[in-house]
Amino acid sequence: MRKNQRAEIPYRLFSIGILLLWILLPLLWMFGTSLKRPAEQFLADVRLFPEHPAWDNYIKIWSAIPLAKYYLNSIMISLATVAICLVISVFASYALSKLPFPGRQAFGISALFTQLMPGVLFLLPIYIIMVMFQQKTGIQMTGTYKGVILTYSTFGIPFSLWMLRSYFDTIPNELAEAGRVDGCSRMQTFFHIILPLAAPGIAATAMYIFIVAWNEVLFATVLTNEGTRTFAIGLREFERQYTKDYGLLMAASMVVTVPIVILFFVFQRLIVSGLTGGGVKE
Q1: What SS3 state is found at 12?
Q2: I need a labelling partner for 167 at 20 to 30 A (CA). Which of 56, 79, 127, 254 fits?
Q3: Closest CA to 142 of 156, 128, 157
Q4: Which band of pLDDT confidence, cut at 50, 70 and 90, is reported for residue 88?
Q5: Is the pLDDT reported for residue 278 higher than 60?
Q6: 23 Cβ neighbours under 8 A, 6+ residues apart
Q7: Which of 193, 199, 203 is nearest to 172 (CA)?
Q8: What is the CATH superfamily name and number for domain 56-277?
Q9: Which part of the chain is CATH 1.10.3720.10?
Q10: Other C-beta atoms within 10 Å of 158: how many?
Q11: Rounded to the nearest 5 degrees, what angle is found at the Cα of 148, between the Cα atoms of 68 and 150?
């Protein structure tokens, strides 16, 4: 059996190498194009990386349009969305997983049902609701951070609820009972025993919500203005102005991937553990 496993190692490594090449080649091509000048982008002699990299492309993109402002807007909106989704869904998912109450199953199915509907169907109703709310209360919703954050949280909470519920299901009830026997209240048991064990699932959920909020374009197009525009919308504006200079466009595209890559490497173990742990119910 060990000989067979050793014989399979080269084939496994070869398969993994092909898969990595398939995944990383577009990213490497994007990075190589971001270092090219316009005259080098359409040469017959195709090269992955230019001989003389144009590093100044990464400087020009910040002066072309207010990308720095859009970048900060995206970070603030994404982090606020993650915070709201986690605060609500952590308590709600724990209740759905561990606490018996009337209508628990119906509530869980209703939350899941919201994920079956395409988001574009809610675009016009949400916009009309916000406009009517503005007219009735005088509180500005469109073109503000709170309008975008509220919209993103509306779609992020149901997914977070189901993802965290599946992870809480894997935590044995005996741990909470042991805490109660030792004199802990239900809230103390939750914060000191259950919540630390659920950290991988929470990290994976936070990562997903951040990525969705960071990359979202449809609702941001309608609900933001010049002051609250996100980086994804700024990238579209950048594309319209510099359609023939793919070096600048790819440089801006590389910059938009930086926060996601950093978050993944920082929380890699928690994310992998969270994504795999919630798939097994003990």
Answers
A1: helix
A2: 79
A3: 128
A4: very high
A5: no
A6: none
A7: 193
A8: MetI-like (1.10.3720.10)
A9: 56-277
A10: 19
A11: 140
